Request: fold
Amino acid sequence: MKQGKLCNRIPVGTKAQLQEILGDKGGAEYYKEMESLDVDVPALKALLKKTLKSRLKTWLNSCMRCGLCADSCFLYIANDKDPAQVPSYKIQSTLGELVRRKGEVDTEFMMHCMDVAWSQCTCCNRCAMYCPMGIDMGVMFSYLRGVLFSQGFVPWEMKIGSGMHRVYRAQMDITTEDWVDTCQWMEEETEEEWPGLEIPVDKENADIIYTVNAREAKHYPEDLADAAVLFHLAGENWTVPSEGWEETSLAMFAGDWEASTMQVKSVYSAIDRLKPKRMVVTECGHAYRATVTEGPYWAGIKSGKVPVDSLHYVEWVAEALRTGKLKIDPAKRIKEPVTFQDSCNYIRNAGLADDARYIMSQIAEDFREMTPNREHNYCCGGGGGMNGIGRYREQRNIGLKVKRDQILETGAKLVISPCHNCWDAIRDLEEVYHIGIRWSFLKPLLIPMVVVPDHLKHIEE
Reply:
């Protein structure tokens, strides 16, 4: 069966393979090869027989085509309510059709499924809240992505991303040495302003093991420094692991379940090795979902729970404020109108809306809710990997209109977004639509307004 040199059914698993596919700028040759990539029908049939279980079959058969899911989808709204963007239609015309044909499909159909799965659904799961039958199109599209990955029909950037996880156990080419050096560098940069501050690596039996998004280590190392400052001010006994520090999973976005398992097991191995009391995940929604929500199942943990209690950063901040570990100087609270982006993965899918509102009540004087909000909020517009796929940039930018309008309706000039995908989407939203807003994670906003404990007062001198 015909396969390409770059576009094929073989996962990227070596540094040499990564360099080769990265050399194809924009994936031009990759997508050209995809047009001739044969579908391995026997393998596809076998996969469907093995993995298409009763829940998905029931959902496909019980959909009433009532259309109540339509207005739940921000892409349907952003595309002038195009019927082809109704969630039920999108899944029935792809996965549903694949099942009805019993895997007897061709290359053109698989490329169509790829385009729908990665450009017309962010797997935000909002549609499931409004389906009278309880059908979750996000879960089904996640499954479809896995089927497509197995056949090689996956966007260029996602193939690279899953390969990064296989080679580096991170979404970027960051080695253990790179990571430890970054921790030491940020400690040195920060301790001058905050004497006594440490970024402990591989400290056993700490109260907290802190895990991050590789983009912080690669592009935003100051985020690690900010986390260290807040842990320092809160008096936390914490550490980062030298290996197993990366929480995110582009492999999850790619539908590469094997690499997703590799990634999450690296984090759990760090927990087993260092034996912390709890884990705190950085300001990233899909990192939390990949390691805390989905991860235990990939790792084969029957309880469905992470080896230790695990908190999203929003949970830790709310707890620190409630317990007085961090105290806000009222005079330094945010004065300008501010709104909050509810991430699909830790608000809708993990129920942390109350913690987010408590934080806002402590740090903002003029907090304005988006409409809708909390678990009903719309996806940022770039989740599920859509932010990073060049092939679908135009579709992503159209989808950003819904979040643009939500923000404009609040009148807020600052959007707080404790999630990397949301942060990126809102940054790009401003670059595309120029609505005059700023955006921020929690950490840099908190540091200037936190009361410095008495025993650290000399730091301010």
